Amino acid sequence: MKPDKKRLWQGILLVILAILLFFFLAVLERVTSPLQKFLVYILLLSLGGGIIAIVMSFARDDAQKKERKYNMQKTIAVIKGDGIGPEIVTEAMKVLDKVAEKYNHKFTYKEVLMGGCAIDATGEPLPQQTIDICQCSDSVLLGAVGGPKWDTLPGDRRPEKGLLGLRGALGLFANIRPSHLNPVLADACPLKNEIVGDGIDLMVVRELIGGAYFGKRETYVKDGEKIAYDTTKYSESEVERVARVAFQMARKRRSKVNSVDKANVLDSSRLWREVVERVAKDYPDVEFSNMLVDNCAMQLVRNPGQFDVIVTENLFGDILTDEASMITGSIGMIPSASLGSGKMGLYEPIHGSAPDIAGQNKANPIATILSAAMMLRYSFDMDVEAKNVEDAVQKVLEAGYRTGDIMSEGCKQVSCQEMGDLICQNI
Ligand code: IPM
Ligand code: MG
Q: DSSP for 280-301?
């Protein structure tokens, strides 16, 4: 507890004054009584005032702390996870702290366990405490989970099961993954210039808590051989809510939606198509078309510029977003937001835990930092702050700084920590 310095000095001065008066009185012992009474009165006042001021100097500090007015206060559950997770999340938190300082916000972090580290500490990939804390927070920031250490565990005990469980528990049905070819990193794009044309700037809205990931599954033995199945099941409401996210997203972009399915084969896709077509009628200003998933995989490398917003089911979305990120040249740059019906979201880079470079301060923290920017925008409505972070990343890249994964000739290679520091300096 630190005292308020001004008050403290006032108190000390009053006490000194009272002591001086005491000695003065001792000298003036024989002075007529009214003056003596007056001086005793002053002495008591000074002493009392001084003591009150000293006490207040401490009390005021506490009150001041409570009173400090922030523009916004948010609680963020932080899951650092496995592999490079802790390194990249630390840099993203540094960036969030810089934003909080600049714009007078307060971010309170609550660190929780999920994935491999949770298995090691508690025996489970997703402890109940983690779900509880995430549910009570304004958003969740996640690094990455998984690694070879836990690869041999049975399916329902793997780190990834923790991630799926958390997405389900938080009701995060829409996963938003932007793929943008940054002109500064154009060299990293594996596609030919004539294919890239005017650039790539698309967004995949992936359904996240339905389909084969969450459907009934089983592995059993019949006639001496193993048989396994997974089921893809969607209800109309599940399709409708994610479709609406895509159409609303498109309105803020180039007003174009491609719904991707396999309606020529799968019943679940035929229902998907029927519902999305119905929803599309509510957005006549948005250009809409359907595309089969195999064709979409091909079009992404043939003419990626044609896409604005792609909406698709969970498994297709998982596959297409890896492809969509790779054509921008750098999976280490792509953030994601997982949203539900409220404001709370889970923000994570789309890359994995990269155990081969874990703990070496080599990882690229940009995807996680850009995920934090998405958090500012989608969960906290802090558009200006989000833009500031994105601009800072851009400036650092334009100045030629690169982590190992995006390094090219003539650039300056920096560590994970240095990249975080450089981005902070530009906020
Ligand atoms: C992703 C990942 C996850 C998924 C894994 C880690 C379970 O690949 O977020 O794309 O398949 O959803
Ligand atoms: Mg994936």
A: HTT-TTSEEEEEEHHHHHHHHH
For 44, the token pair is 């008591």
Print burial letters for 354-380: b (CB count within 10 Å at least 16), e (below 16): bbebbeeebbbbbbbbbbbbbbbbbbb
Question: CATH homologous superfamily of domain 74-170+344-427?
Answer: Isopropylmalate Dehydrogenase (3.40.718.10)
198-330 shares the fold of 74-170+344-427: yes
Domain boundaries, the chain: 5-67, 74-170+344-427, 198-330
Among all residues, which ones are annotated catalytic? 213, 262, 294, 318, 322
| pLDDT tens track for 73-132 | 999 999 999 999 999 999 999 999 999 999 999 999 999 999 999 999 999 999 999 999
Query: Which ligand sits nearest to residue 349's alpha carbon?
Result: 1
Pocket test for ligand 1, best of 160, 316, 353 (most atoms within 8 A of CB): 160
Pocket test for ligand 1, best of 313, 318, 348 (most atoms within 8 A of CB): 318
Q: What is the pTM of this model?
A: 0.82
pLDDT tens string 129-173:
999 999 999 999 999 999 999 999 887 889 999 999 999 999 999
Predicted confidence band at 66 (pLDDT cuts at 50, 70, 90)?
A: low
Pick the atom of ligand 1 nearest to 314's CA. Answer: 12
CATH superfamily ID and name for 198-330: Isopropylmalate Dehydrogenase (3.40.718.10)
Closest C-alpha to 150, from 82, 80, 78: 82
